[in-house]
Design a protein that fits this description.
With 402 residues, the chain is of the alpha/beta class. Helices cover 54% and strands 14% of the residues. The chain has eleven helices and eleven strands. The protein has a four-stranded mixed β-sheet with strand order 1-2-3-4. Strands 5-6-7-8 form a four-stranded mixed β-sheet. The protein has a three-stranded mixed β-sheet with strand order 9-10-11. A hairpin with a 2-residue loop joins β10 and β11. α1 packs across α2.
Length: 402
């Protein structure tokens, strides 16, 4: 649902710190899947709402354990539905040539972290529309099972759970189709405007501003609910206002992200990367790395390489500082470095704008540039910020010249 948002100053996701995975569940179809700790909030709310609210009203006189078990099963099925929604985005994105870093489930749904953007409006539309489509299909399927069970005379807690899952999937699809970024409907709006105007930047700005308007509208609705409708529980109004604030903040970040992308233009990673790179071999102790590399250079990030100079990880000063002084002689550098799988990698001809959503995680904001399995450079937040400043200066200079 929410994804690919960046913060202009640091070229890093504006709220991604709240959506980083706390626990990695594994992979599906080659896509890494994780959950954020905030999932527990929604899990508990669904469990209590279904197990001690919805089901006892619809199917009274069951044992408390039945309600509790049904609530837990419903919560798990709900998150599996969200996962199916996000996997659809990820799989179609890969089919459109867009890399996928992974999927993280959190309290407000899911985040499919895409490495880049679709190359044309049709691809953008397909990536955006497939998530709500999957939710609709799931909702119809659950409702179909409910109708079939009712026709066969089946009645009970299981039917109630399936019926609720049908409702919630349809509701999620409808909400996500609101034409306001960063919701899927906002991305669909962007794709349609991009096709019509022939200008992706203009389409992104329009969709983002619609998202801000929708988000602040929800904030206002939540506050009105709290102040003027005391019959509605306070929590409901607070939840609506919080959701609106998150959407408005994310939409503002999307607008800034679009402006940054425009500033980068056709620049490639090779145009801004630092080519002076000091690598360290695997097997060295942290103490040796500090004495022979860190203290004798001005670098703060060091790619770790094997015997054939192939990169296997990246170690930064922050990684090294975490090791106690008495342990530095006994801990190998590869044990504290980001692994090859976790570090962010790019090729020299990768569009610079594609790094905007990737400069995070254990690499401390660095991207290792690799060509033919050899390290040829590093891109840092400093490199990105300087590039943006130069772009602004060029723009100002052009205006003065005009």
């Amino acid at each position: 649902m929410l994804d690919r948002l960046t913060e202009p100053g640091a070229a890093a996701p504006s709220w991604r710190c709240a959506v980083n995975e706390t626990l990695r569940l594994g992979e599906f179809a080659g896509v890494r899947i994780g959950v954020n700790w905030s999932v527990l909030v929604i899990f508990v709310l669904v469990l209590l709402g279904i197990g001690f609210g919805y089901l006892p009203l619809q199917y009274p006189d069951r044992a408390a354990g039945v309600y509790l078990l049904a609530g837990a099963i419903t919560a798990v099925a709900f998150f599996l539905s969200l996962l199916a929604h996000e996997l659809a985005h990820a799989i179609v994105a890969r089919g459109e040539g867009v890399g996928v870093e992974g999927i993280t489930l959190w309290m407000f749904g899911g985040v499919a972290k895409l490495e880049g953007e679709a190359m044309d409006p049709r691809g953008d539309l397909r990536i955006s529309a497939v998530g709500p489509l999957v939710s609709v299909v799931l909702g119809v399927a659950f409702y179909g099972i409910t109708l079939l069970g009712t026709a066969l005379g089946v009645d009970g807690v299981a039917i109630g759970v399936i019926n609720w899952l049908g409702f919630i999937n349809i509701a999620l699809a409808v909400f996500n189709l609101v034409p306001a970024a960063p919701l899927d409907g906002g991305r669909i709006l962007r794709a349609l405007l991009w096709k019509r105007r022939g200008d992706r930047f203009s389409a992104s700005i329009t969709a983002s501003r619609a998202g801000k308007a929708f988000g602040f509208g929800l904030v206002a609705l939540g506050l009105v609910t709290i102040i003027m409708i005391p019959q509605i529980p306070l929590f409901n109004g607070l939840w609506i206002a919080l959701l609106g604030w998150i959407l408005a903040t994310a939409a503002a970040a999307e607008e800034q992200h679009a402006r940054i992308q425009r500033s980068f233009g056709d620049l490639r990673v090779s145009d801004v990367m630092s080519v002076e790179v000091m690598t360290v071999p695997r097997g060295l102790a942290v103490q040796d790395v500090l004495e022979d590399y860190v203290l004798r250079s001005r670098y703060s990030a060091f790619p770790v390489v094997d015997g054939q100079d192939r990169p296997t990880g990246l170690v930064t000063l922050n990684h090294l500082k975490r090791i106690d002084r008495e342990d530095r002689a006994h801990v190998a550098v590869e044990d504290v470095a980001c692994s090859r799988e976790d570090m962010v990698v790019a090729e020299p001809d990768t569009p610079l704008a594609e790094l905007l959503t990737r400069m995070q995680g254990c690499a401390d904001g660095r991207v290792v540039v690799i060509d033919q399995d050899r390290v040829v450079g590093i891109v840092s937040h400093t490199d990105m910020a300087r590039t943006l400043q130069l772009a602004d200066l060029r723009t100002e200079g052009d205006r003065q010249h005009i």
